[in-house]
Amino acid sequence: LTALQSFLNLLYNGYVSPEKQKRFIEQAIERSQGLLDMVDDLLNLATAREEMSPRNRVLISLAEPMEQAGILMQARAEEKGVSFSMQPMHRPVIEANPEQMREVWTNLISNAVKYTAAGGAVRVILEEREGWAVGTVEDTGIGIGPDEQERIFMEFYRSPRAKEMETQGTGLGLALVKRIIDGYGGTITVESALNKGSRFRFKIPVATSSQTTLSGGPVQK
Q1: What does pTM read for this prediction?
Q2: Which of 138, 153, 120 is nearest to 193 (CA)?
Q3: For the residues of 85-127, what is the DSSP string, one character each?
Q4: What percent of the chain has pLDDT over 90?
Q5: Is residue 17 exposed (0-12), middle (13-18) or buried (19+ Cβ within 10 Å)?
């Protein structure tokens, strides 16, 4: 906020030459977007538990939000020269808030694309294993050091290497993902090695036959 206010005061008081004004305005827009991203993430984090209340849950195929998020992220991957693939091996049905599932997939896939350099690859997989819907997002990116892997799900934490590669970021995305996954009785883990890539894997219980019967309606697509 201080930086944004300084840019605007300089412009307002006429201290910026006409040829430099565009750059100052661009910097102000960039800072304001960063603030907007942080506010959005904070609101999502604060309301996560309320949004996963029973009244906001429906039966959904976990493949649907995966594909919705993947289509958007694929365009970004192509812009960076990163190979991108989605493999819905199964289409497990879960009881959840569809928007929150899109948040989970979007955050994980976005990070994978963001921290993978040109020539690398991102792969997204969905399976069903012994009553669990299992989602995996793996990349060949910068990786996460052993001492950092325990902290990446903490609010506002970003590793030094992540900050070097991508200056923009709130450090709240993975905290939100973990809160959502935990709230649905699931778990999320990470396997990673520096300069070799990362694999994030989460699992959520599939809907039981009794849940499907009580729903009385079709699975949301």
Answers
A1: 0.77
A2: 138
A3: EEEES---EEEE-HHHHHHHHHHHHHHHHHTS-TT-EEEEEEE
A4: 53
A5: exposed
> Stretch 31-59: mean pLDDT, rounded?
81
Look up residue 209 and give its amino acid.
S
Q: Give the residue from 132, 146, 135 showing the smallest Cα distance to 188.
A: 135
Q: How far is CA 178 from the centre of its chain?
A: 10
Cβ proximity of 49 and 63 under 8 Å: no
- DSSP code for 220: B
Q: Which of 46, 37, 51, 154 is nearest to 100 (CA)?
A: 51
Question: For the chain, where are the E strands, in sequence order?
Answer: 58-61, 83-88, 93-96, 121-129, 132-139, 187-193, 197-205
CB 38 within 8 A of CB 173: no
Q: At what angle do helices 173-183 and 18-51 cross, to 10 degrees?
A: 10
Question: Is residue 124 packed enough to be buried (19+ CB in 10 Å), middle (13-18) or exposed (0-12)?
Answer: buried
Among candidate residues 134, 50, 136, the one with its CA nearest the CA of residue 100 = 50
